[in-house]
Write a structure and sequence with these properties.
Shape: globular
Helix content: 40-55%
Radius of gyration: 21 Å
Strand content: 5-15%
Largest sheet: 4 strands, mixed
Distance between the termini: 46 Å
CATH architecture: 3-Layer(aba) Sandwich
CATH superfamily: Glutaredoxin
Oligomer: single chain
Number of domains: 1
Structural class: alpha+beta
CATH topology: Glutaredoxin
Number of helices: 6
C-alpha cells in the first residue's frame, strides 16, 4: 500500500498534477533571497556584485525542464527561508540562473550540466563546484566555508593520525570483547 502511494506522488510530481499538495506549495513559493535572475536589470546588478572584488558568490545554474533541478526545489525553498531569516550570515550574493539567461552573465557562464552549483570568487571566476549533499545543510556548509565541502577541504590526515586511529579502533574492539 505504501509503495502504491509513493508511486502516485511520483507520478503527480512528474506530470505536474495540480492535485499534488507539495507541487502546489512549490509553485506558490516566491524566493526572497535565492531569486531567479530573469530581467536585464537583475542580471546586470548581479554581474556588478559578482565582479565587485568584495566577496564570493553562490550560484545555482538550472533548467526548468530538468528533473534533477526540480527535485532540488524543496531543499532550495528551505535554504531560501533560512537565508531570509539569517541575512546577517550571508557573506556574498546568491542567485539562481536558468538556462535561458546563462549567456547574459558576464561571470562564469559555462555550467557542465544541470543543476550546476558553484562558488565564484570575488572576480566572478569559478572557484569551486558543489559536490556535497543536495540538502539545505549541505548547501549551507558549502556557503559557510566558501566552497569547501566535506573531506576535500577539511583537515588532511597524516600517517601519524591514521596509525593512532588504527590503535584506538583495536583498543575499542579489545575492550568490547572483555
Amino acid at each position: 500500500m505504501g509503495c502504491l502511494i509513493s508511486l502516485k506522488v511520483i507520478y503527480r510530481r512528474m506530470t505536474n498534477d495540480p492535485t499534488d499538495p507539495m507541487q502546489q506549495q512549490e509553485d506558490d513559493y516566491t524566493f526572497k533571497v535565492l531569486k531567479e535572475l530573469t530581467t536585464k536589470d537583475a542580471i546586470a546588478d548581479f554581474n556588478k556584485k559578482a565582479k565587485s572584488g568584495k566577496s564570493n558568490t553562490f550560484v545555482i545554474y538550472f533548467a526548468h525542464w530538468c528533473p534533477h533541478c526540480n527535485a532540488l526545489t524543496p531543499e532550495l525553498i528551505k535554504l531560501d527561508k533560512f537565508l531570509y531569516e539569517n541575512k546577517d550570515k550571508l557573506n556574498g550574493p546568491v542567485a539562481r540562473v536558468s538556462d535561458e539567461h546563462i549567456a547574459e552573465l558576464e561571470v562564469f557562464n559555462e555550467p557542465n550540466g544541470f543543476p550546476t552549483i558553484v562558488i565564484l570568487d570575488e572576480n566572478g571566476e569559478k572557484k569551486e563546484d558543489f559536490n556535497g549533499s543536495r540538502t539545505m545543510y549541505g548547501f549551507l556548509t558549502f556557503l559557510k566555508n566558501n566552497g569547501v565541502y566535506g573531506m576535500s577541504g577539511g583537515r588532511k590526515h597524516n600517517k601519524k593520525s591514521r596509525k593512532h586511529n588504527k590503535k584506538s579502533r583495536k583498543h575499542n574492539k579489545k575492550s568490547q570483547k572483555n
